[in-house]
Amino acid sequence: MARQKSIQRMATSALNKDNKAIDKAKKGVAADSFVNFSQNLGIGADNPMTSSTYGFNPITRNRTLLEWIHRGSWLGGVAVDVVADDMTRAGIEMKGKLDPDEMERIEEVATVYGIWNQINDAIKWSRLYGGCIAVMLIDGQDPETPLRLNTIRKGQFRGLLVLDRWMVEPSLSDLVTEMGPNMGEPKFYSVTANAPALNRQKIHHSRCLRLEGVRLPYWQRVMENLWGLSVFERLYDRMVAFDSATTGAAQLVFKSYIRTYKIEGMREVSAAGGDAVNALTRYVDMMRRFQGIEGITLLDANDSMEATTHGGFSGLSDALQQFGQQLSGALQIPLVRLFGQSPLGFNSGDSDLRNYYDNIRQQQIKQLLVPVTRIYRAIAASEDIELPEGFGIEFKSLWQMSDLDKANVASTVAQAVQGVESQGLISQAAAMKELRQSSQKTGIFTNISDEEIEEAEAALPPSGEGLLGEQEEFNFSKPSQIKPEESNLPNPEPSAEESKAKPENLEAQSNAKNI
Predict the structure, then answer these.
(1) In b/e form, how buried is each residue of 435-452, taking b as 16+ CB within 10 angstroms?
(2) Whole-model pTM?
(3) Distance between CA 162 and CA 302 in Å, rounded?
(4) pLDDT of 400-430, one tens digit each?
(5) Is it the case that residue 476 has pLDDT exceeding 60?
(6) pLDDT(311) > 50
(7) Residues 410 and 348 in one domain
(8) In terms of domains, do 165 and 21 share one?
(9) 59, 60, 40, 58: which is closest to 50 by C-alpha?
């Protein structure tokens, strides 16, 4: 309890320091930057820039507002959902000498319990609220105890339960003290009474996949009960600017064609009021109602009407595009992915998507690699699968090659494998394994079966010892020990008597005598 009060005092102290810093900034204290007082240039001089500062708008603490943004704004929904969908879209590959049947069993359990759907939700709600956990459900174990993978028995793994920061209360008075990546984080999470499951239960941190949205520095994290920041807080003003601009552009459509009706004595009619104003209103309403596309406008001889078309749309598209680019930069999502628009000019958009996919991969490794590996180890333990040394996971690439790219890669791999195999650096069976392994990326050489590889291994030539037999009884200096018909070596040179006995040699000798 004393520790919790200490955390609260620290949060109050941090908030007071922030307020003092804001007041100091509003007074226009000169910074260590360029200043020209004679021309009123730079921050600190007498100009509008000196009065500019950054305010404190902690909308992360306003759960209802965050939910309204995510629910009522398509831009808010995309800002939260796109990154989560891309981080979980391709799945993972298991590394290590694991039997393919065992890999299929692990993936089947992950699919049955919707592991990646739950991870997707955890990422979404962490980006929306600034914090979320996904609890591993191990049947028969107390969630308050630390998770030990060697204690998981067959069929005990039952999936994940996603709880956002408003459904759990971190133990601010009991933090992780063991050295490691979790040091200083809450040791336990108490589930609230309004949570969908595990109500009022205490969960050990080792059973949780913890995500923080936008990670904050320490003192700001203390103010947020050791949680992070919603992605909406940083770009809230840019979202308001974008939505205001698009809504204003829609309003211009209604005001692009304005008709003006000039009535003689309009001021007197308005001043008189009563029946005069009612009669004028009925007259204008009748004129509006019966005037169609080819209708007639009824006017008094002394009245006049003007129709004006406003061309106020020039430059509007450029302004909207600039607002969109600001949002794209704030979210680190390219325009082709955020707005689904086609690339402009000579830009194909491939480089933007590649950079974005690299950023997604970085976030996968940073946030998901360790906890997802632990989840897959728990699934393997629940299936009585003994994982080999060096087991791990690798996130599949989001960049999908075209058929032409796959064909080129397959051709390059085939030439490289054929080259080293022809030089005797690898066996035919090893070459077939390399080709089949490359099929995971190219989709080519997938039909190389295990039986064909085993046949290639069985067809290898026997070792040198089997060819030579007992080496101590063999002497290469005596070729007569091996008969030509029993040897793979070339026939030995004939002796002089044998050469003379051959018909071709006799003919040669006869010709020589004739000469």
Answers:
(1) bbebbeebebbeebeeee
(2) 0.71
(3) 74
(4) 777 787 888 888 988 898 888 888 888 888 8
(5) no
(6) yes
(7) no
(8) no
(9) 40
Please name the residue that has the structure tokens 């807080």. Answer: 233
C-alpha of 330 from chain center: 16
- The whole-angstrom separation of Cα 130 and Cα 194 is 19
Is 387 a domain residue? yes
- List, in order, residues 6 or more apart from 402 with CB less than 8 Å away: none
Q: Are residues 144 and 46 in the same domain?
A: no
pLDDT band at residue 21 using 50, 70 and 90 as cut-offs: low
- Would you say residue 468 lies in a domain? no
Please state the domain count of the chain: 4
Residue 304 and residue 289 in contact, taking contact as beta carbons nearer than 8 Å = no
pLDDT category of residue 473 using cuts at 50, 70 and 90? very low
Tell me how far apart the alpha carbons of residues 175 and 184 are, in angstroms, rounded to a whole number: 6
DSSP symbols for 116-153: HHHHHHHHHHHHHHS-EEEEEEETTS-TTSPP-GGG--
Residue 193, φ and ψ in degrees, nearest 5? -70, -20
* Nearest by Cα to 371 from 210, 214, 215, 212: 210
CB 164 within 8 A of CB 118: no
Q: In the structure encoding, which two tokens stand for residue 243, read together? A: 């939505």
Does 352 or 392 have the greater pLDDT score?
392
Q: Give the long-range contacts of residues 1-8, CB within 8 A, separation 24 or more.
A: 1/173, 2/173, 3/172, 3/173, 3/174, 4/172, 4/173, 7/172, 7/173, 7/222
